[in-house]
Amino acid sequence: MDLLKIGMISFAHGHAFSYFNSLLELPEVKIVGIADEVKSRVEGIAERHEVPYYADYRDLLAQDVDAVIICSENVHHAKLVIDAANAKKHVLCEKPLGTTKEEMEQMIAACKHNGVQLMTAFPCRYLAAVVRAKEAIERGEIGDIVAIKGTNHGGNPGGWFIDKSLSGGGAVLDHTVHVMDLMNWFLQSEVKEVYAYAATLFREELEVEDAGMLHIKFENGVFAVLDTSWSRPKSFPTWGDVTMEIVGTQGVITVDGFAQKNDLFSNAAGKGQYTFWGDNMDAFMIRDFVKALRQGEQVPVTGEDGLKAAQVALAAYESVKLGQPVVM
Question: What are the residue boundaries of the GFO/IDH/MocA-like oxidoreductase domain, all occurrences included (predicted)?
Answer without folding.
Answer: 131-253
